[in-house]
Write a sequence for this structure.
């Protein structure tokens, strides 16, 4: 084969009609896919873990940029199309059929891959929180993930905004998170109901002495009752009222007024 067939032909050839149940909304625009693939930086010989390649549009863009890609796809119908892509790029694409939620992706790499994914909302958010909970510094170099715009806003939100919550704190306490680009719904086939955005996350040094599970518990309690004062919402977290006092955090404040650093300080006090 001297050239790859256009993606729409691949879809027709392998009968890859988009499945709603699998959250399939495909991207075909090569220029747009190239811009997404450029977000993690120079990919020459870089290791990439791609989750949910589908018919392989983004995979093509990553390979064109010089990456070595390991792709995990749950939909068996897509595997022959991906195998064809692997044959076109010998030794550069490893295709794994399976559910990314069940696979220990870390064990697939010796180095530190960049992760790239365009996934359905529920799977994307579950994997995102899992990747953020890794031992730090994590086994991945960066995360470049397509989300619904509203979820992307929650990840990068600043204190005081309605979007600020558990996801913002978990994403920002030891990583930098930014919206790298927004993607119009009409770019997808079929178009989803809402707009999308690509979030790029890179790890930074973790604050010392803080346990992830404790931070998770504190943020879940605080934002679980976000309209309530901290003294009420953190009642069920042992030691929290005393920790607020020690740290000089006014217990009549509400969760959304606390900076990420203040949540970190609370979790540190409770991690001892
Ligand atoms: N990356 C392709 C693109 O941009 O055109 C496809 C994106 S589509 C929104 C999401 C893909 O993730 C689908 O191919 C779907 O089958 C796959 N997928 C959904 N859940 C998955 C899971 N748990 N593990 C692996 N792949 C999954």
């Amino acid at each position: 084969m001297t050239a790859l067939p256009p993606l729409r032909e691949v879809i027709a050839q392998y009968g890859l009609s988009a499945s709603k149940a699998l959250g399939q909304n495909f991207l075909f625009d090569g220029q747009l896919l190239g811009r997404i693939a450029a977000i993690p930086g120079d990919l020459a010989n870089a290791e990439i873990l791609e989750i949910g390649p589908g018919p392989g549009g983004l995979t093509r863009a990553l390979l064109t940029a010089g990456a070595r890609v390991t792709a995990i796809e749950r939909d068996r119908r897509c595997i022959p199309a991906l195998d064809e892509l692997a044959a076109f790029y010998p030794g550069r694409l490893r295709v794994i059929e399976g559910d990314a939620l069940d696979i220990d992706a870390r064990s697939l790499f010796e180095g530190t891959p960049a992760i790239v994914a365009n996934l359905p909302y529920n799977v994307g958010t579950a994997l995102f929180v899992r990747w953020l909970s890794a031992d730090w510094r994590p086994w991945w170099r960066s995360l470049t993930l397509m989300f619904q715009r509203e979820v992307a806003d929650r990840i990068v939100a600043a204190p005081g905004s309605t979007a600020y919550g558990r996801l913002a704190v978990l994403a920002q306490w030891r990583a930098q998170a930014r919206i790298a680009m927004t993607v119009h719904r009409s770019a997808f086939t079929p178009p989803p109901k809402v707009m999308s955005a690509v979030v790029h996350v890179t790890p930074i040094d973790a604050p010392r002495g803080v346990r992830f599970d404790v931070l998770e518990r504190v943020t879940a309690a605080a934002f679980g009752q976000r309209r309530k004062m901290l003294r009420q919402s953190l009642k069920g977290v042992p030691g929290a009222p005393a920790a607020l006092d020690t740290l000089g955090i006014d217990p009549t404040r509400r969760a959304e007024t606390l900076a990420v650093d203040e949540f970190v300080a609370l979790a540190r006090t409770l991690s001892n």
Observations:
- Residues 22-27, 51-54, 57-58, 72-75, 78, 99-101, 118-120, 123 surround S-adenosylmethionine (CB under 6 Å).
- The chain is about 35% helix and 20% strand.
